[in-house]
Amino acid sequence: MAEGKKEQVTQSGIDRRTFIKTTGIVTGSVLLGGFHFVRLSQAQDTGPIKVGFPIPLTGPYGTEAKDQQAGAELAIAQINAKGGILGRKVELLVRDTKLNAAEAARRAKELIESEHVHIMSGVLSAANQLAVNEQCKLHGIPYVSVSQANEITQRPDNSIYTYHEAMDPHMTTQAVGEYVAKKYGKKWYFLTSDYAYGWQMTDGFIRRGKEYGAKSVGETKHPLGTSDYSSYMPRILAAKPDVLFLNNFGKDQINSAKQATAFGLKKKMQIVCPILLMSSRLGGGEEPFDGVIGGTSFYWEMNHPTAKEFVAAFQKANGRPPIDYAGYAYGGVKEILMGVERAGSLDPTKLAEAIEGRTYDNYKGPQWWRPCDHQSQQDVFIIKSKKAKAEYDVFQIIQTVSGKGERLLRTCIEVGQNPSKPIRSGLIEKK
């Protein structure tokens, strides 16, 4: 749901609660009042430490998923080159979710029960993340999420096993909305992908806009995977907004940006993509994104020591620079594995204690783990598409919005957590 108002829709079109009921995916903490028992043999493996990595390699987010995989592979290669974790090599097991929540749950279940993975990461789309997270909670497997979702850190979906390396839609909209309200006017229109991600973006912008006197002058929702946006353009023009937010992602963002440009909308309003990715800019071309602004967690030309190290290593391995979703996966997988190393074991409580409250810098500058919900606090970068001087030189960073001190996060109380205690819900007793 978005800010607790709407039921989350899976890729098959059913809401998340119905999905859980019909597939039988519920956590052990729900079934057994907080504790579920699994055989200890699952945790006593002397072979490689296995990381499950379900991602949507096929479907409209395939480009971003491939970068997630490349980022995770780089993190593991670097860790293995230094001797692995706890003296054991690390192995990445990738599965295709096809951007379908039921398939994501099946793949996670297979990775846990057949492959006996020790850690889970990956996944794109909120519904897919939550389906994988349910399986991890049921089996007591740490899961570090590396794409945006609001629910992943709030009750009832969060647990001691759940970590969220990525920004969430709330963080994104608070940072981007603040910048837009100050620079581009107060009449806002939303072209929204009709599922949780889009809803949450619109809700977040409306919330932030109220603080600066901005108001919505309209919203049009479109199905995931829409190719023709021409019927939407006249009503957007008729509303006469100062700003048009394209609250969509991947190929949807490319297609809507192209058609907004073709209809001349840029001459009348500022176009904003809350998450503006290099993959979309390269896929759509220079003209559709000319002058478009947006937010990102990372851009490869950042002038920061760890960013430069990450970019150099990624380019050496892949022949091109990374997008921000590669950064999420690289940073998240590296952080959870190094947490295991610091903890000295895969014990969930020791792992949580090794991560909670920690300041870290894996690939872009300081980040901070909030203990109450395992959300990574981080800066948000406002970027603008520009005329490329080289193939991948497509954005300029025009402002950094600080994420320090929880200024972009919902409060612990708002997400249903105790602000004075680290999260320990859903702990499984193994025997």
Radius of gyration: 21 Å
Given helix and strand content, the structural type is: alpha/beta
General shape: globular
| Strand content range | 15-25%
Distance between the termini: 35 Å
The count of strands amounts to: 17
Q: CATH topology of the largest domain, anyone?
A: Rossmann fold
Which stretches are poorly predicted, pLDDT < 50 over at least 5 residues? Answer: 1-43
Largest sheet: 7 strands, mixed
The number of distinct helices, counting runs of at least 4 residues, comes to 14
List the helices and strands and how they pair.
Layout: H1 16-23, H2 28-32, E1 37-38, E2 49-55, H3 62-81, E3 90-96, H4 101-113, E4 119-120, H5 126-139, E5 143-145, E6 162-164, H6 169-183, E7 187-193, H7 196-211, E8 215-222, H8 233-239, E9 243-247, H9 251-262, E10 270-275, H10 278-284, H11 286-289, E11 293-296, H12 305-318, H13 324-343, H14 348-355, E12 359-360, E13 367-370, E14 375-377, E15 380-385, E16 395-401, E17 429-430
Keywords:
17 strands; disordered N terminus; 14 helices; three-stranded parallel β-sheet; Rossmann fold
Provide a descriptive summary of the structure in words.
- This protein is an alpha/beta fold.
- The chain has two domains: 241 residues, Rossmann fold, CATH 3.40.50; 127 residues, Rossmann fold (3-Layer(aba) Sandwich), CATH 3.40.50.
- Helix content is 38%, strand content 18%.
- It is built from 14 helices and 17 strands.
- The strands form five sheets. Strands 8-7-9-10-11-15-16 form a seven-stranded mixed β-sheet, sandwiched between helices. A three-stranded parallel β-sheet has the order 3-2-4, sandwiched between helices. Strands 12-13-14 form a three-stranded antiparallel β-sheet, with no helix packed on it.
- A hairpin with a 6-residue loop joins strand 12 and strand 13.
